[in-house]
Amino acid sequence: MTELPTTTRPVLLSVEDLVVEYATSSGPFRAVDHVNFSAAPEGTPT
After folding, report:
1. Please, which domain of life does this record's source organism belong to (predicted)?
2. Within 10 Å of residue 17's Cβ, how many Cβ atoms?
3. pLDDT in tens, 21-34
């Protein structure tokens, strides 16, 4: 299997892969990153 470039998002295999953590003034905030729910490379218009 060919290694993907570091600029390419890995293929999402589970819901856990979508959970992202944001640093906010009130502390860490965890959310589901549903916006990037795809295997498209970063910066690719949807």
Report:
1. Bacteria
2. 13
3. 778 888 888 777 66
10-23 tens-digit pLDDT: 565 566 666 777 78
Closest C-alpha among 19, 27, 4, 5 to residue 36: 19
Q: What pTM did the predictor assign? A: 0.29
The structural domains of the chain, with segments of one domain joined by +, span: 1-46
Residue type, 24: T
Which tokens hold the place of 36?
A: 């990037």
Q: Tokens in use for 45? A: 């218009």
Q: Do the beta carbons of residue 18 and residue 10 sit within 8 Å?
A: no
Amino acid at 10: P
Chain mean position to CA 22:
12
